[in-house]
Specification:
Layout: E1 2-5, E2 9-16, H1 24-29, H2 35-45, E3 49-54, E4 61-68
Antiparallel strand pairs: 1-2, 2-4, 3-4
Length: about 70
């Protein structure tokens, strides 16, 4: 996990080496979705952002969450 703090934001990321890249918009509206759906819903509800970025080799991804303080 990576984290960063700024004067008005907190950002953190979770990385894995699985190639599947979830659609965060679909996760946010999925009924009965798993943990990712809950995280995205909370993030958006708090005015934050969520972004999926693929690894350069295409064999993993990082999900970045940024929240206002």
């Amino acid at each position: 996990m990576i984290h960063a703090v700024g004067p008005d934001t907190f950002a953190f990321a979770v990385h894995d080496r699985h190639p599947y890249q979830p659609a965060l918009c679909a996760a946010a509206i999925a009924a009965g979705g798993g943990g990712l759906a809950t995280v995205v819903e909370l993030t958006l509800g708090l005015g934050g952002t969520a972004v999926v970025r693929a690894d350069a080799d295409g064999r993993g991804k990082t999900i970045w969450i940024t929240l206002p303080l």
